């Protein structure tokens, strides 16, 4: 049964891709702007304004990020079975905008965070799972669509610390939170306006017992995705420190003086998406060239390399903080760290999302993409718990622990490569083969 109407790639395009891809990544861009705008401020807001202790703030931060990625598991099921992707995106965006509005009230902090996480559950799996609907099965452009999409949405991540961070740090935390809410509303406007460029028909999938039983045929695929999710859980425990303990270290352990001014601590969070823009075209060109020679790394190899590069980035911080002792580390080293960190991210995160979307059983696209966020949920909980060690370990020891976690993830992903290669080859040969 055809699950969605696919857009003919010969139709007019933007930037050589279906116009719907631009609509989707602009929508996601503003959602990312709102999410990272609020997230950039959150740990500083809790420790500097609400005067919460570091360990408590880290746990709240980790729990919020975890819940923001747990709710998509349920939201994907709701979208696939009842609402459909379009309605799920619009409803989820409205709920998130309401949650950002609640951030204006200090006493509503936990309610606001819960509301944003709830809306994210409907929004997050339903938007990227529409990318596959824009291409025919044999469209050669579809293979790297998620990397292009990843670059597009990181524009929001680049702008968020500069806009929301500056407003919050220099003029008042609630101004920054308000800007994040406005960003979410802009994303909704773009999505509704651009609906004409998205698949015109999207019947909600009603899974009968026969269809449900057919999922047993996909057992090897589902077991692979589960194993990948466990490895990514370990990886996220280290990765998610970027907005948690690394942000605290930027405030207290980095010499931010430059040209007679002190660089706002929130601005450094823009380096990650900046390097996404800078490095992605280079990586795509390298992979495209290697693909022509039949030497492009397989998905698991790319993800394993990415986790290992993240480990190297944290090893660099461990060495720098150990050598610096009681002194601050110069901010230029932080720029180098973000560059290395982002290189690893580009190897693992878009590849993992694309893997889950590509191997999704028919009729379960949003649910399978949501399963990718289950790994982010569990990893974020682990990151919150790991962050509580920040106050009890030296900075060098803490960063060394993060390097160890990323290295373990790299090893697990490397061991999964043979199984993943076999399953991807089977699925490429026949869409009905699990």
Strand content: under 5%
Strand order of the largest sheet: 1-2
Enumerate how many helices there are, as a single number.
15
Mean pLDDT over the full residue set:
82
| Unreliable runs | 1-7
Q: Main β-sheet, in a few words?
A: 2 strands, antiparallel
Radius of gyration: 21 Å
- What's the domain count? 1
Per CATH, which architecture?
A: Up-down Bundle
Distance between the termini: 17 Å
Q: Might you state the CATH topology name?
A: Growth Hormone, Chain: A
The structure class reads: mainly alpha
CATH class term:
Mainly Alpha
Instruction: Give a count of the beta strands, DSSP E runs of length 2 or more.
Output: 6
Order of helices and strands: EEHHHHHHHHHEEEHHEHHHH
Question: What would your notes on this structure say?
Answer:
With 434 residues, the chain is mainly α. The chain has one domain: MFS general substrate transporter like domains (Growth Hormone, Chain: A, Up-down Bundle), CATH 1.20.1250. It contains 15 helices and six strands. The chain has helices spanning 19-49, 54-83, 85-102, 109-126, 145-171, 173-193, 209-213, 219-239, 245-253, 271-292, 299-324, 331-358, 365-387, 395-415, 417-429, and strands at residues 13-14, 17-18, 254-255, 257-258, 261-262, 329-330. The strands form three sheets. A two-stranded antiparallel ribbon has the order 1-2. Strands 3-6 form a two-stranded parallel ribbon. The longest helix is centred in the first third of the chain and has 31 residues, at 19-49. The radius of gyration is 21 Å and the shape is globular.
